[in-house]
Design goal:
The mean pLDDT is 94. Helix 1 packs across helix 11, helix 6 packs antiparallel against helix 12 (409-424) and helix 9 (222-239) packs across helix 12. Helix 5 (116-125) links the parallel strand 4 and strand 5 (133-136). This protein is 33% helix and 20% strand. By secondary structure, it is an alpha/beta fold. A 9-stranded mixed beta sheet has the order 14-13-12-11-7-10-9-8-15, with helices on one face. Strands 3-2-1-4-5-6 form a 6-stranded parallel beta sheet, with helices on both faces. It is globular. It has 12 helices and 15 strands. It binds 6-O-phosphono-beta-D-glucopyranose (BG6). 6-O-phosphono-beta-D-glucopyranose binds next to helix 9. 6-O-phosphono-beta-D-glucopyranose (BG6) is lined by residues 206, 225-226, 353.
């Protein structure tokens, strides 16, 4: 859906961590780059003043990089602040006043889902939800049942096209590029299936731990934090069929078909790990059973992907920070050259962060008299420096009413249906040393004698 632009931006959780890390820098960039000029109303229950919120915004933007005083002044002039309890109708009366003549606000719920119901009801009763849109942060629920309940809560007040569920991975340049690469090229489609693809691996590795978010992490764990959303979304973009048409609905329809074809995880094909030292983090239980690492095998029951395993792995305190996809192809039917050597298979490597890299692994003849080969990588690399942050892109899209990069209720619910069995099975969490690739048992998730492809530090571009 696109439509009229929102004429006020309200964000709940204005004094929180997400606002400091992501929302203020994104708003600043929108003012800077696209001339955003609407009232921006921060909401919180913190006893703050507008001046304090402006100081916080300034600190956030100074920390995030370039700071232009003139541009910051423009943002600061658009800022408003409403303080109050989200269960108190008076808070929403103050919000309604702060909205002034705005008739199409967008409300961003950067708050825990447990507060959604009272906020949504408060918005409705004060008239602030009329002709409004709402953006909701992940995690969208804890499992299928809670996600369905959140959807019911939102739908009591907002229609589905007015709901923008954020998954910031979908706003990443590299993830957009993945989609483009798949559907803008002719050469890929004939081989992008079970006849040529042996397996697909996705690794999201983070070198750091929970960075002071222990209390949050205790509520989620790696599967809820990044697998159910970011990594299954990436899987869907890798595996879906081409959309028929240009409308966002066409893309959503294909994604939904794919999500519904994902087989619910078999707990026997899931390994959970926890880095040594996690239980000493502030906010973490001494006997915590929360996973900071997960490795799993996913099956997609379509004609395109039957019998092609999708291996997914994510973890904190791993040797490197990088997210990478490897699509490995089957070998040629007969080995004509190098019959006694196990040459590497062809593959596509799609690095999603921190660099954007698309490369293809191939074999060429080594120099000399013999017909022996050596592996090479054909690389297409894109610079990342001047790109929009995912939050700038996604918040801008939401303000314009463009739903293309947001997740619909049925896709979110289908993704929960996939991971739910792994959340309830009570598989043990296996300890691993920080700086390693997780518990040893994770190697058994990859079958056929293969191994995980560990992302390495990217060499500088040859171009
Ligand atoms: C967030 C998770 O959604 O994504 C974090 O809550 C994770 O735990 C982060 O670190 C990774 O995203 P990015 O874009 O910083 O790589």
């Amino acid at each position: 859906m696109t439509g009229l632009e929102s004429d006020a931006f309200v964000f709940f959780g204005a004094t929180g961590d997400l606002a400091h890390k992501k929302i203020f820098p994104a708003l600043y960039a929108m003012v800077h780059r696209s001339g955003l000029n609407i009232p921006i109303i921060g909401m919180a229950r913190a006893g703050w003043t507008l001046d304090k919120l402006r100081a916080r915004a300034r600190d956030s933007i100074e920390h995030s990089g370039d700071f232009d005083a003139g541009c910051f002044e423009k943002l600061a002039a658009q800022l408003r602040y409403v303080d109050g309890d989200y269960t108190d109708p008076a808070t929403f009366t103050k919000l309604k006043q702060a909205l002034g003549p705005a008739t199409r606000p967008i409300h961003y719920l950067a708050i825990p889902p447990s507060m959604f119901a009272s906020v949504v009801q408060g918005l409705a009763k004060s008239g602030s939800a009329d002709h409004a849109r709402v953006i909701v942060e992940k995690p969208f629920g804890r499992d299928l049942a809670t996600a369905q309940s959140l959807d019911r809560t939102l739908h009591e007040v907002f229609s589905e096209p007015a709901i923008f569920r954020i998954d910031h991975y979908l706003g990443k340049e590299a993830v957009q590029n993945l989609l483009y690469f798949r559907f803008a090229n002719t050469f890929l489609e004939p081989i992008w299936n079970r006849h040529y693809v042996k397996d697909v691996q996705i690794t999201m590795a983070e070198e750091f731990g929970v960075q002071g978010r222990g209390a949050f992490y205790e509520e989620v764990g790696a599967i809820r934090d990044v697998v159910q959303n970011h990594l299954l979304q990436v899987t869907a973009l890798l595996a879906m069929d081409p959309p028929t048409g240009h409308e966002p609905a066409a893309m959503q329809a294909e994604k939904l078909r794919l999500f519904r074809a994902m087989r619910p995880l078999d707990p026997k094909e899931v390994v959970r790990g926890q880095f040594k030292g996690y239980r000493d983090e502030p906010g973490v239980a001494k006997d915590s059973q929360i996973e900071t690492f997960a490795a799993l095998r996913l099956h997609i029951d379509t004609w395109r992907w039957a019998d092609v395993p999708f291996y997914i792995r994510a973890g904190k305190c791993l040797p490197i920070s990088a997210t990478e996809v490897t699509v490995t192809l089957k070998r040629p039917p007969l080995p004509i050259f190098d019959p006694n050597e196990a040459m590497p298979r062809n593959y596509f490597r799609l690095r999603l962060s921190p660099e954007v890299v698309i490369s293809e692994g191939a074999l060429v003849k080594r120099n000399g008299d013999q017909m022996h080969g050596e592996p090479v990588e054909l690389v297409a690399r894109h610079r990342t420096e001047s790109e929009k942050s995912p939050y700038e892109r996604l918040l801008g899209d939401a303000i314009r009413g463009d739903t293309s990069l947001f997740t619909q209720d049925d896709c979110v619910e289908a993704a929960w249906r996939v991971v739910d069995p792994a959340l309830t099975a009570g598989q043990p969490v296996l300890e691993y040393e920080p700086g390693t690739w997780g518990p040893r048992a994770s190697t058994e998730v990859v079958n056929d004698g293969d191994t995980w492809h560990d992302p390495v530090t990217e060499k500088s571009s040859p171009c």
